[in-house]
Structure prediction request, 418 residues.
Amino acid sequence: MKIIEPKAESAISYGGLIEKIEILRSTLRWASKLERPQIQKLLSQCNALRDEVMQLSRKERFVTATASAGAARKQTTAQRRKALLDRSFVFEGVFGESLKLLDALEIAEKAAPTDLPVLIDGESGTGKELMAKVIHANGNRADQPYISVNCGAIPDNLLESELFGHKRGAFTGASSDRSGKFEAANTGTIFLDEIGELPLPGQVKLLRVLQSNEIQRVGSDKTIDVDTRIVAATNKNLMNMCREGTFREDLYYRLGVIQVTLPPLRERKDEIPLLIEFFGDEAAEKLQRRPVKLSRRLRTFLLDYAYPGNIRELRNIIFRIACLAGDTADFEHLPESIRPDVKEAKPEEGEEVQQQLSLADAKKAASDAAERKFLEQGLQEQAGKVSELARQLDMNRSHLQTLLKKHGLRSKDYRAGS
Ligand SMILES: Nc1ncnc2c1ncn2[C@@H]1O[C@H](COP(=O)(O)OP(=O)(O)O)[C@@H](O)[C@H]1O
Ligand SMILES: [Mg+2]
Prediction:
């Protein structure tokens, strides 16, 4: 669906959007007969519009409202990238010219000096944690504490105490009063990773911090004032969780006053060569060795591969290569699960000819391997449910079946209990 670009000064575009939602709604309400696919289509149009309204409102308030935003829109991506680098924007990594990433970085840059909460979303390994640190480092609290809590890694029954502290005797094992991470991060920033894992009672408490900047230790009535900036991250679709009732909508909107979305690496492939070099240097330094050269076919493979594990996966591969390879790395140094199944070319005499001949094969094999890995991962995530996977990938179900067949993948192997 095509959505009109918002103008910073016009609230009218909202009117238009909301009207569209109403039209869709009333179509649903008053139609004498609607087929199921039609209903679903209308519903998804409604949801898309609703998301768009929220997106517009955030963008309009915090990005398009600033004077530089207008200028940024007229710039090419290369100019926008250069402008970010020229301004003293602290970023402990590399970035390319992908439009989505530049959008994310510019939003982060503007959000950093405010105390507003930021919600970072994106697939696992896309750099959410790095981005949280970037927001902290570019803000007024950079010299104050930065405390990171992974809500998915702490058992539910301990999470509240971890975040808010507890009073002596609040539960078995609470032998003394203890402060939590929110107090530790007072005057600084708390990074709440995997916020979608926070159980509902914890969500209520977090909402309270956002509303009134105060916490209560578990088992205590006393309120404690905290001045803690909240940056949260998730790889879940919180909007869907709100619809399912597993995430509080009011909390979602409070947390996501500013939302920064990190695109997956496959949507910013121009970054891969930069990252290869960045991690190559990092690995060489950590392992105290000379940077590894990449054989031409390995380089081609790495540039084409789909990276379901995103930047983290690329980093792991480069570190593995730097550890295992001698002077030059080749396919054999890749993890076996993604290694293309092609005959090893001898990197000796006639290397050029041999490698050029095998390049097409190597490319095909690499892209096949990437496709297979991607599908395997998807099947794993969806526990073997092909229709779910098709929906996630926005792909025709029968086309997906054909692809699975091509790779000899059987969905039932991924179902629970198999
Ligand atoms: N733009 C980048 N440049 C360099 N390294 C990056 C970049 N983005 C992410 N990384 C690195 O990739 C790894 C995964 O990033 P992380 O922030 O942990 O991802 P997430 O929290 O989304 O799973 C980390 O080692 C991080 O330092
Ligand atoms: Mg993470």
Observations:
- Residues 1-12, 60-65, 347-357 have pLDDT under 50 and may be disordered.
- Residues 128-129, 193 surround magnesium ion (ligand 2) (CB under 6 Å).
